[in-house]
From TrEMBL:
UniProt main location, coarse: Golgi
GO molecular function, one term: glycosyltransferase activity
Record protein name field: Exostosin GT47 domain-containing protein
Ranges where the Exostosin GT47 domain occurs: 42-388
Family: Belongs to the glycosyltransferase 47 family.
Bilayer topology term: Single-pass type II membrane protein
Amino acid sequence: MASKTPPLFFTLSLICLLPLAFFYLHSTTISPNSQNTLVAPKNSIKVYISPLPRSLNYGLLEKYWALNSDTRIGSEVDNEIRKTISPKLSEKFLPYPENPIIKQYSAEYWILGDLLAAEELKSESFAKRVLDSSEADVIFVPFFATLSAELQLVINKSVFRKRVEENEDYARQRMVVDLVKKTDAWKKSGGRDHVFVITDPVAMWHVKDEIAPAILLVVDFGGWYRIDSKTSNDSSSDLTIHHTQVSLLKDVIVPYTYLLPRLHISENRKRNTLLYFKGAKHRHRGGLVREKLWDLLVNEPGVIIEEGFPNATGKEQSIKGMRNSEFCLHPAGDTPTSCRLFDAIQSLCIPVIVSDNIELPFEGTVDYSDFSVFVSVSDALRTNWLVSHLRSYSGEQKDRFRDYMARVQPIFRYDNDYLGGVGPTSRDGAVNQIWRKVNEKVPMIREAITRERRKPPGVPVPVRCHCI
């Protein structure tokens, strides 16, 4: 009769073998010579540029600079530039407007400029251009939607919201959608893998429903959610947001283009003001909180709250104010965010974010709580609460905030230092960060396209909330 293996011996043998098994499995999975594509990091995204006429992108720059003048606030600098370039408009190398109202939304210009750069210069660009749409991960639609909208507001603001012949912006929006929808690439995916840059809240206003399936690059979701009170008889239905157009699952939050110069940490000096805010007091929608905050804080010692406008004088005042302040107030305006947040980061002024529904760019890569103070609207509106809370931060804590802020300053930079914006982006800059975020969406988008194709003809696709 065979002898039994002692239970203790068997147990000890297993314990000894487990480390060897783990070592074997682990080494075969992460070996540098492994051909396993699942563990090989992807370091680029393949992008096809949808063919649109020049009149819908760089042609709009020619049209803008050919204007005799722009009478809106902040346009003085562009009126001076016109004197130097109007007589010799070029098909290349036209700058994006410096008027801060427009410049803050210039992502469209820098993203296209990087895609059009010579491939031999693009070793650090995350997006690689392909010339066949079937090889692409995503399709980029090169429409300067912000510039189109702003041109209309300069030329004939009265028809901006109307779908009439005199509204050239509407005609351009219609042209973009009609041209793109005729392509095989759109028909193949239903537009889900197409990328639109829509940073200005009023850009593409007339066709938002039609491009909703696409990947939208937006500065926030303000103005994109639509409330449908008919979906429920519940008395709280007016507070329910039903997703019809935007979602963190498919869209990408991108930064505004900052307007103030970068302050390096080595240049930082003693700051004498506790809290600073410069901007318009009266705003719509969520900006009503700003008016209440203004009245609470305007007479507080150590706090500077002042009306300001985006012109040359206002810019110089903002530079001085932000660089001399420990904290910079960031309340919601017409939309949850503004370029003021990114100006504060470049000025090493710790952002105080009072906006309950804010979405921020590159979260997951950047943890804003490492350099920002988040305050609920209800707390901010309590008498004396906000100032007392900010005074409770120690000098060491504030220095730690600024040190981290200095490290993330470069990722919000769009400018590539190339004439006309056509050139490769900086490795850690905003354009590469945007494409990395888009790349994260690609597997989910491919799954949605595949799921859509296998549906029998006539079967509707249910509208669901994909908010997270």
